């Protein structure tokens, strides 16, 4: 038996387990990976796509990827977090440049394992009553779909943006005011300055592979015409979207062969930020649904029952795919495509956040302001 969609993974373990819990966990994961037909490499090679990186809370040890397609799962054991789980655990994900961090903590007679993602998801699997088969199957189901996902994180920058658009348009000004509105609603987390967590060598590696210089969450876009749309850039302050080519990009297409988003930039921009990692998702939605004129993605949730009563379609994705993957884009686009009115949909992305479509940005905020869409700050983690 293989993982979802029949994808066969090749995997290795790197490092030594620092605790008996970690040793026990990787033995169980190894067994489960074998049951599902994946290929084990005793030492990583150019074909190894999944690395289980065994680290400690005291020492960061990022694995040096040779390719951006390598998926890193860092594993460690620590104490039960005091306060919000992300305050304790998220820095370990950053320091080890991980696609997924599995953080084990013992709580009385139970083992709590948190599966922390860059999108700030943190669902957990709990070992209760010694039921190891259920525990490891649940753990596997949280690892395999992520590791099998196909990322669209490359941008092909085309210095062909007309001068009249480079100065900004009414649509780019709408994005600016929408970003400010999201900030006023406290739906924009603080931009994370990753340089405070990573060494200069790690920062160079991150830029070389992913062109990432900072992390911020949530994004917004507005249709420009039938073929193109304006979208917030990656790693920028979404409350201050002013400069075209720096804070805002014009997306003009998608190269399926290269898994690359085509971005039109002003001629004078020499080192552009990537467009938001969710550009592939927005591209799918705009391409399939001519009536959608704007999209907002925020890391929050909605009151499902109350929002449905106002006539909105509220639907959820079923799998926790990572941001910037074909799979998350297809999953979200499918929900919207099948809705009675694709321009009035709220999609709850599992363990992640929400996507709201509208005829334009004002339409989305009007529905939030009048209570038609009931925002809830706490994201459900399942």
Summarize the structure.
With 382 residues, the protein is an alpha/beta fold.
What does this structure look like?
- This protein is an alpha/beta fold and 382 residues long.
- The protein has two domains: 4-147, CoaB-like (Rossmann fold); 154-376, Class II aldolase/adducin N-terminal domain (L-fuculose-1-phosphate Aldolase, 3-Layer(aba) Sandwich).
- 29% of the residues lie in helices and 23% in strands.
- It is built from ten helices and 18 strands.
- The strands form three sheets. It has a nine-stranded mixed sheet with strand order 8-12-11-10-9-13-17-16-15, with helices on both faces.
- Helix 1 packs across helix 3 and helix 7 (279-288) runs parallel beside helix 9 (326-337).
- The longest helix has 16 residues, at 20-35.
- It starts with 9 loop residues before the first strand and ends in a 6-residue tail after the last strand.
- The model is unreliable at 1-5 and 209-215 (pLDDT under 50).
For CATH, the homologous superfamily of the largest domain is named as Class II aldolase/adducin N-terminal domain
Class based on secondary structure composition and strand pairing: alpha/beta
Series of secondary-structure elements, N-terminal to C-terminal: EHEEEHEEEHEHHHEEEEHEEHEHEEHE
- Gyration radius (Cα, Å) is 21 Å
Strand content: 15-25%
Assembly type: single chain
Mean pLDDT level: 90
Number of structural domains: 2
Q: Residue ranges: pLDDT <50 for 5 or more in a row? A: 1-5, 209-215
Q: Could you say what the CATH topology of the largest domain is called?
A: L-fuculose-1-phosphate Aldolase
CATH architecture of the largest domain: 3-Layer(aba) Sandwich
Number of helices: 10
Helix content: 25-40%
Distance between the termini: 25 Å
Query: In order across it, which strands form the biggest sheet?
Result: 8-12-11-10-9-13-17-16-15
The 3D shape can be described as: globular
Main β-sheet description: 9 strands, mixed
Number of strands: 18
* Level-1 CATH class name of the largest domain: Alpha Beta
């Amino acid at each position: 038996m293989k993982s979802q969609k029949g994808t066969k993974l090749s995997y290795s373990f790197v490092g030594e387990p620092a605790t008996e819990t970690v040793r026990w966990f990787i033995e169980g994961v190894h067994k489960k990976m074998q049951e599902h037909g994946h290929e084990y490499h005793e030492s990583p090679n150019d074909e190894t796509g999944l690395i289980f990186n065994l680290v400690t809370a005291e020492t960061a040890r990022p694995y040096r990827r040779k390719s951006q397609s390598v998926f890193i799962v860092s594993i460690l054991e620590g104490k039960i977090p005091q306060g919000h789980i992300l305050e304790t655990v998220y820095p370990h994900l950053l320091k080890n440049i991980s696609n997924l961090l599995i953080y084990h903590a013992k709580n009385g007679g139970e083992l709590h394992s948190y599966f922390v993602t860059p999108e700030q998801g943190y669902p957990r699997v709990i070992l209760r009553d010694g039921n190891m088969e259920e525990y490891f199957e649940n753990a596997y189901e949280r690892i395999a779909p992520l590791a099998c996902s196909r990322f669209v994180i490359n941008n092909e920058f085309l210095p062909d943006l007309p001068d009249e658009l480079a100065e900004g348009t009414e649509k780019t000004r709408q994005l600016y005011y929408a970003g400010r509105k999201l900030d006023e609603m406290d739906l924009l987390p603080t931009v994370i300055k990753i340089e405070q967590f990573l060494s200069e060598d790690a920062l160079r590696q991150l830029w070389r592979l992913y062109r990432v210089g900072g992390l911020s969450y949530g994004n917004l876009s507005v249709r420009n015409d039938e073929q193109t749309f304006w979208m917030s850039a990656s790693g920028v302050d979404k409350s201050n979207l002013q400069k075209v080519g720096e804070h805002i990009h014009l997306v003009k297409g998608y190269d399926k062969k290269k898994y690359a988003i085509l971005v039109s930039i002003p001629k004078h921009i020499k080192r552009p930020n990537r467009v938001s990692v969710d550009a592939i998702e927005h591209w799918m939605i705009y391409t399939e649904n001519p009536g959608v004129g704007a999209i907002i993605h925020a890391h929050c949730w909605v009151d499902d029952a109350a929002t449905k009563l106002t006539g909105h379609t509220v639907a959820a994705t079923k799998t926790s795919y990572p941001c910037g993957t074909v799979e998350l884009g297809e999953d979200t686009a499918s929900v919207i495509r099948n809705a009675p009115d694709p321009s009035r949909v709220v999609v709850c992305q599992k363990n992640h956040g929400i996507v709201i479509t509208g005829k334009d940005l004002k339409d989305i905020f009007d529905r939030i302001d009048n209570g038609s869409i009931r925002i809830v700050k706490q994201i459900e983690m399942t």
